[in-house]
Amino acid sequence: MAHAIRFHETGGPDVMRWEEVPVGDPGPGEVRIRHVAVGLNFADTYFRSGLYPAPLPAGLGVEAAGVVEAVGEGVTHVAEGDSVTYTGSPLGAYSTERVMPAGPLIKLPDGISCESAAAMTMRGLTSAYLLRRIHPLKPGDTVLLHAAAGGVGLIFCQWAKLLGINVIGTVSSEEKAEIARAHGCDHIIHYRREDVAERVRELTDGAGVPVVFDSVGKDTVAGSMASLRRRGLLVCFGTASGVPPLDAMQLALHGSLFVTRPALADYIAEPAERDALASELFGHVASGRIKIQINQRYSLQDAVHAHRDLEAGRTTGSSVFVL
């Protein structure tokens, strides 16, 4: 019998339950997949807590990699026995196996393991659209990236280095600073003991940066705006500390700033664009130009413990559930 993590009410980590679940056979346009590894992402906590609504009871998780065990009618881009990865809806990646729509599946190339894929598909594609689609960054540009030692941060820093982009990264500890530096972060700001905007101005000769990539939210938005140069862009791509309150007048007072709150789903909705970003990501990883740092591995039954670690800021790099 297959098992899955499910929740019947929203709340803290303790609402998650390890349950037996039926799987069945795939229908038209569907596949049955046996998971090998499952990604742990901060977005999972948003669904569990109720910040992102989901009809209850619900499964959890939006990213995993594994092996296709059966395909339904009309499925042609993957076949039985293929190793695949995915990120996105519907919820339910926290499971040993599942039936799901075939559309989101991306076939893994040789050289990319299921464990690496589960650790990087969401984070890597997020880094891809942030660096390749959001703003026309060019070699020599300097940007500010919050949470530089996180899963997205470590991939982003390495990719930025390949593009000739300088990264000022914020971290909470010296341990995380060392990890970020090792992955290409050019300048470190310890946000707990330094004024972020003041240090950014020092590092940019008073000019500020053209783009701030902010995955933290409410706790960092003021410093992010103060770090931008005139007509700079604030990219709020996450809300780890809550949704930031944005006053349009503050955008004017800080230099006619622009702001966007992008979602990965809107940058991979078209299969051709998704496949182009994935191909670039997988190419960098397979060649060793980008290394995927898996610093935490958990059993799926230990999802409660994993969520507590994640929300307490005890994780670095990527985290996966290994089945």
Question: Keywords, please?
Answer:
single chain, 323 residues, alpha/beta, Quinone Oxidoreductase, Chain A, domain 1, Rossmann fold, 7-stranded mixed sheet, 6-stranded parallel sheet, 16 strands, 27% strand, globular
What report would you give on this structure?
This protein has 323 residues and is an alpha/beta fold. The chain has two domains: 2-122 and 265-322, Medium-chain alcohol dehydrogenases, catalytic domain (Quinone Oxidoreductase, Chain A, domain 1, Alpha-Beta Complex); 135-261, 3-Layer(aba) Sandwich (Rossmann fold). It contains ten helices and 16 strands. It has helices at residues 42-49, 114-132, 151-163, 174-182, 196-203, 221-227, 248-253, 264-267, 271-287, 303-311; strands at residues 2-7, 16-21, 30-40, 58-59, 63-71, 83-87, 97-101, 106-107, 142-145, 166-171, 187-190, 209-214, 228-236, 258-260, 294-298, 318-322. Strands 3, 5, 6, 7, 8, 15 and 16 form a seven-stranded mixed β-sheet that branches. It has a six-stranded parallel β-sheet with strand order 11-10-9-12-13-14, with helices on both faces. It has a three-stranded antiparallel β-sheet with strand order 2-1-4, with no helix packed on it. The protein is globular, with a radius of gyration of 20 Å. The two termini are 14 Å apart.
